[in-house]
Structure formats: structure tokens, C-alpha cells
Amino acid sequence: SIKHPPQNPPPRPPAEMRRKRA
Amino acid sequence: GPIMLDSYRVVSDYSKSSKYELNLKAGDLVDIVEKSPNGWWFCQFETHRGWAPASYLEPLDGPDEREEPEPDYAGELYKTIKAYKAVEEDELSLEFGEIIEVIHKLLDGWWVVRKGEETGYYPSMFLCRTGEKKEV
After folding, report:
1. How, if at all, do strands B118-123 and B110-115 pair?
2. What per-residue confidence (pLDDT) applies to A10?
3. How many Cβ atoms are within 10 Å of B7's Cβ, its own excluded?
4. Who is most buried in A21, B1, B40, B132, counting CB within 10 A?
């Protein structure tokens, strides 16, 4: 149901986010 | 009183991969209703509600480091409750039932874990605390 988060692992951070973290 | 929701900015376009997720575009502003530790956050975007990956969201006021715990290099013991095969180079492949040490609990749901000499990312949703402290 919508109350429960998806059962699959979330995606890894996109390239934009990795650049910001670095 | 009114409930103040945290606003986050979408960093990159995201296409949903299951029913109750949101499709998002870079630059969209979403309000966070619930932050699940597995890296899926329940968000409101305009009139839509659904789950979005925390890894695609950044706080409006810049990186919020208060939220993310510091790495714990001593490690905390966890057991894998589901096997996962690494897709990217910096991930670890583990079988069901392995005992590993969690070094860094990242909010995006990918935790840094150590098994013997190896370290890498593993989905936090496939880990369960053993309740034991590592013997030093």
C-alpha cells in the first residue's frame, strides 16, 4: 500500500548529487 | 498547530519504478512527510503524494549535516536479511545471513559496511541489527 515504502532498494545517488558531495 | 514540513529540491529527473512512487523533475520542490531509514521518503509534490528516493533530494538550505550520523569506524554488527549482488564498483555483494559491520548510516538508504577486509555500500533495507557490540 502507499503507507509502506517500496520493497526494492532506492537508487544510488545520481551523478549531480555525487559531484556535490565530493 | 500547523505541521511544518521540510522542503527539499529534486537534484535530477527521476522516473518511478513502482506504483506508489513519484515521478520528479530536477528543480521540483517537494515537502517531506516521512523519512524512512531505508532511503525512501514519503513526499508531497503539488497535489501528488508518494515515495521518492532520498538520494535524489537535497535540503533547500544546503547540505544538512546535523541529520546524518558520523561514521562509526568501530562498526555496529548487523545481519543480512536478504542477499544483494553489487551493481556498482563501490557496492558489496553479500549472501543472506552474513554478519557484517555497519560503519556509516547514510540517509539515502545505502550504508557503508565492512566484511573482513572489504568495505562497500549495501542497501540498509536488507540489514537487521544483531543487538551485539563488536568485541574490540
Report:
1. antiparallel
2. 97
3. 15
4. B40
Residue B126: closest CA among B67, B68, B39: B39
Q: Which amino acid is at B77?
A: L
Nearest C-alpha in B relative to A13: B55
The ipTM, to two decimals, is 0.90
Give me the sheet containing B40-45, strands edge to edge: B48-53, B40-45, B29-35, B6-10, B57-59
Asked whether the beta carbons of residue A12 and residue B50 sit closer than 8 angstroms, the reply is: no
d(CA B135, CA B3): 43
pLDDT tens, residue by residue, B22-43: 999 999 999 999 999 999 999 9
pLDDT given for residue B131 in this prediction: 74
